[in-house]
Amino acid sequence: MVEQVNSFAIKTKNVSVHYGNKMAIDDVTINFTKNDVTSLIGPSGCGKSTFLRCLNRMNDVIDSCKVQGEFLLNGVTDIYGDSIQVETLREKIGMVFQKPNPFPKSIFENVAYGPKIHGLASTQSELNDIVMESLNRAGLYDEVKDRMDDIATGLSGGQQQRLCIARAIAIRPEIILMDEPCSALDPIATARIEELINELRENYTIIIVTHSMSQASRISQRTAFFHLGKLIEHGDTSKIFTKPDKEQTNDYITGRFG
Amino acid sequence: MNSLNKRLSAEKRFQAYGLFAVALSMFFVLILMWKIFSTGSGAFVRTTIEANVFFNPDFIQVNQNSLEKELYRASYVALADEVVRQNHPKLNEEQFIKVREMYTRKFDYQLRDYLLDNPDKIGQSIIMKITASSDLDQIVKGNYPRDVPEAQRKINDYQLSVLDKLTSEGKVSSVFNFWFFTKGDSRDPETAGIWGAVMGSLYALIICFSFAFPIGLLASVYLEEFVKPGKVTDIIEVNINNLAAVPSIVFGLLGLGMLIGVIGLPYQVPLVGGLVLGFMTLPTIIIASRASLRSVPPSIREGALAVGATKMQTVFHHVIPLSLPGTLTGTIIGMAQALGETAPLLMIGMVAFVMEIPGGPLDPATGLPSQIYLWSESAERGFLEKTSAGIMLLLLFLIIMNTAAVLIRRRLEVKW
User: A33 to chain B nearest CA, in Å?
Assistant: First the structure.
């Protein structure tokens, strides 16, 4: 498989992360292909969420967290470099969290907040269009179009999570990071989100941390297996789940540990 | 089974102790309330004596065309004496003095105020309800005993006989004492009002809020959201908690030494009082505000940061609005505490005799608690009921403020 430099959304090299003296990520090198869904799997505490949060520098707020290594956005921009501000970076790399975290404001305000602070809309009607389009893409518009001014925390968990996805795509990112987005949802809501992830793949690169191996196999094209802060194996999902190279990977996906 | 019974009866005993504790404290509250209400309710009515008043233009030397200034300066003291003489004819000089004492010393002010409002009554005769003196008022209200020797009474036998005659003629009546709510302090209990103290406290609280709230909010937001925790913040934290426990009189000394002594702000004004109360409330506000900032879930901050908001935008668009109910509640409770604080006001001189209603934070004034303190020190029985009535008003304000705090919390609190 020949891989072009510009076909990678994010390239990382020799990444190590420490919390104080404790090592969380140990020398991980991984590249994420564009317009693919990449699943990060592994047992709890393996560092997959930590790694994900390094990609849009959400770990910056944790004082004890030290990140080393190379992170390149689109093969050129150093994510931790001076050439890009963290706010601009997060405009390009959106994030959806484990627990739905809509702002306790109206549904409209939730989606409109990002475009507003980045000045993406110059008029109210432009803003309305962005909000509508984002909700549409997140598959939520039909459910909420009559109650845009209702407070977002009144929505169901699944709707809240789709609202968070709409909020993330409203600022037109290139990449969306998802940190176990379905772990707080029931199976039906989970199925909707999975469907949505599949649709979003056309326009965005998606990196998703998941605990469910069946989910990883259903939605992702690439899978990376982490264990104890190390990247054990990374490759096409079909290969990882059928004939992995490493025995450890095989043990994990067949449920022998983790 | 036996041991279970033992444990169950232990619980029953514990509940009984608890019930007893609650009942005992309620009992004391009720006694306090009963005492205050039974003493203070008298302050809301005052005794008046009906009198025929003839605004004789020759006597007061003004006429219907006189300017307000002239009306203001007319000789009402003489008119007051004249009214007494006309309503109680055939008095000798000694009797006259005694009868005059039955009316308030501020008789003339009552006449003046009436004429200023109704200048067309010059040259006419009207029936007016003249306020009785405080001693007479207390006799009528039954607070002074009548059946003791004359020497032990403030009202002598002759005055009593006049009173009984007036009562039988139906001229003695009680009216609602508006003056208590509209006038400033006075040497005479019957004309003393609490409004000057209320305004003094109001100005002080406005100053206190506008000083302590922004500073407290900024300090807590900075400490909680921006600064990295370390030794310095630990020291600051300990100091803030310490300051919250410092006796209020120390803040009064600070105000006296620094604001009045060094900076040279005037003595006994609400501006200084408000600043001192602000110093006192500041730690309370910071502690409440930090607690409510901490209670905003980190996921909200993450959500805002993840869409590319700066830290400042995250804090000002999301965290502060969500923490505001808690901050405001803490602020109001702190201000309620400040409203009842007497010691700092004593230190900075807001405990003087002030008759005028303060028109601004730079006018000399007393505060509610210091006015209560002032009245409580007066010997006259009339001030005793004013003291209790003042306490009732103070309690009312405290209840209003604390209710407001609860309502704000309920209305604005976000359900997650």
Answer: 22
